[in-house]
Amino acid sequence: MATVAAPATRPDPFALTEEERAVRDTAREFAQRELAPTVAQRDDEERYDRSIFERMGEAGLTAIPYPEEYGGAGMGTFHWALACEEVAAADMGMAVSLSVHVLSQLCIFANGTDAQKARLLPPMTAGRHLGAFALTEPQAGSDASAIALRAERTDDGYALTGSKVWITNGADADVLVVFATVDRSKGRDGITAFVVERETPGFRIGSHERKMGIRDSVSVELVFEEARVPEANRLGEEGRGLKVALSALGAGRIGIAAACVGLARAALEHATLYAVQRTQFGRPIADQEMVQAMLADAATSVEAARLLTWRAARLRDAGKPINAASSMAKMYASDAAMRVATDAVQIYGGAGYSRENPVERFMRDAKGAQIYEGTNQIHRLIIAQQLIEEARRTG
C-alpha cells in the first residue's frame, strides 16, 4: 500500500513580519502608557491635548506611511493600519486626530509640487505641525460636489470666502488642506485644493461642536473672510480638487477602519473580563449561553473587520485599486464597532450605562465612526456601483 505524503506545511499568510510586529508593539506600548490613563478625563472635558500628538510624533507614529526623504519611516499602509488599531484601542479620539493628520499629509504627498512637499511634509511627519482636512460644509457633506467656499483669483493667488464645518484638528492645525470652488457653475470641475496655513490673513476658527462622542478630538467651524492664499499654496491644478479629496479619502478610510477594529477589540476585551468577574444567581454571567453568544458574535465581528482592513491595506501597498475595498472595510468595521460596543454595554447591564465604565464611551465613539469619512449608506452605494459597473462590462 502506497504511503501518502503529509501535506507540506505552509506559512501562515496572516502572520506579521518582525517589522510589522515591532510597529504594532510600539504603538500598543505608547497607547497604553500615554493615552489610556487620561482618556476618560479628556473625554469628559472635551479637551484636545496637543502635547500627546507631539509625543506621537516623537514615537514615530506620524511618520509611518511616508518616504524617508520627507522624514517618514518608509513603511506602508499596512504598518499604518496596525498602529491605528492600537491607538484606537486606548483612545478613539486621538486615533481619529492622527488619521486625519495623515490624511492631510497624503493630499500633499500625492499632489504637491517638490517644493511644497519639501517645505510642508518634514515638520508634519515629525509631529511638530498638525494637519487638518477641510472638505465638509453646512450643505456639502456626502455630496462634496456642492462645495460653496469661494476661491476668487487675485493678483498673487486666491481669496477664500465662506466656511467649513466639523473639521477635525481644525482648532489646532498648522497646515489645513482646504477645498474651494473657483467656479460654481462647473460643479465638481470647479473645485480646487489649497494649503491654508494657520496664520493666513482672513482665516479664523469659528464655533466648536458639542459632540456625543470622540470628544477629546475637537471638531470646529472654519471661517474664511477673503483669506489670502498665495498661488504657491494651490495643491494641484484648478478643477482637480475633488479628485485630490476622493483619492485621499479612499486611503484614509483604511485608517478609520483600523481604528474601529481597535475600538471593537477593546470593547470585547472589557466585556469578556466583566462577564467572567460578574456573578448573578451564584454564577459568573459568562456561564450564561446568551452572554456567550454575544461574546462569540463580537469576536467574529472583530476578526472579520480586521481581515477586511488588512486586505484593503495590502491592496493599496501593492498599488491596486482600493475604492470598493476601503469602503467595505470602513463600512463593516464601523458597523462592527457599534454592534460590539452596544453589546458590551448590554453585558455590563446598568454599570455599562454609567460614565464610570469605558464601554459607555466606546458606544458613543463608535456611533461617530458610522458617519464620518462618508456615511455607511454612501459606502454601500460605492460598493454596489462598482459591482454593477463590473457586471455591465462583463455582461
3D architecture notes:
With 395 residues, the chain is an alpha+beta fold. The chain has eleven helices and ten strands. The strands form three sheets. A four-stranded mixed beta sheet has the order 1-4-5-8. The chain has a four-stranded antiparallel beta sheet with strand order 2-3-7-6, with helices on one face. It has a two-stranded antiparallel ribbon with strand order 9-10. α4 (77-90) crosses α7, α7 (241-277) packs parallel to α9 and α8 (289-317) packs antiparallel against α9 (323-348). The longest helix has 37 residues, at 241-277. It is globular, with a radius of gyration of 22 Å.
* Helix vs. strand class: alpha+beta
- Taking all Cα atoms into account, the compactness measure Rg is 22 Å
Order of helices and strands: HHHHHHEEEEEEEEHEEHHHH
- Largest sheet properties: 4 strands, mixed
Globally, the shape reads: globular
Strand content: 5-15%
Helix percentage: 40-55%
